[in-house]
Amino acid sequence: MFGLALAAPPGPMNAVIAEESVVRGWTAGARAGLGAMSADALFFVLAALGLVAFVEQFPTVRAVMVGAGGVLMLYFAYGAAREIGTTFREAADTDDDSAGFTKAFVLALTNPYQILFWLTIGVGLLETGTVDVLAHTPYLGASLSNLLIVETGSPALILGFFGGIALWVTGFPAALVAAEQRVDSFAPAVAAVSAVVLGGFGAVFVWDAVRALAL
């Protein structure tokens, strides 16, 4: 449930997964999801080594990472807009599947939401204690607090956390592909929404970075 709570809400990462799924098929979508998951795994290792907490001491570094993420999102939004009107049956190219993994991995490394998560609750996963799982759901956390409390510091929690993410990044693309196969207009709609979501988040993150660096 923890992994699903983190992975499922709409946002820039799911926009990339959705675009890859409906344009190039389930394999590309799942690869993109695994790219994002790999970034979480890397953050987990860095948290275990204490490097994530170290980065928190340098606001300028965080601001640069956020700005880079915003620029990448704007670039990927442009790519998604170009693919409006294309279905994966028309444009499938297995040689491009790995590009989705790289795109999501790099974007996840500079995604402010993932950075913030690993600077706060992600570090806490390694320490004995408790965590309010749903309170850390992106965008909805405040309204879901105190509904699910779990103990931290256990291998079962870590395995379950990444298991939930894996379930989402493989199941979500499958659902999108199934829908696209039934509704011809579904793929262009997803590409359009992906472009809007990525562009919106990208603009916000670039602005936040500019303000942080200007202070």
Automatic annotation (TrEMBL):
Keyword presence, Membrane: yes
Key words of the record: Cell membrane, Membrane, Transmembrane, Transmembrane helix
InterPro entries with a match to the protein in the record: LeuE-type
Coiled-coil residues: none
Signal peptide start-end: none
Gene Ontology biological process terms from the UniProt entry: amino acid transport
Location relative to the cell: Cell membrane
Pfam annotation, one family: LysE
Gene Ontology terms: cellular component: plasma membrane
Topology with respect to the bilayer: Multi-pass membrane protein
Transmembrane segments: 34-54, 61-81, 115-135, 156-179, 185-207
Protein name: L-lysine exporter
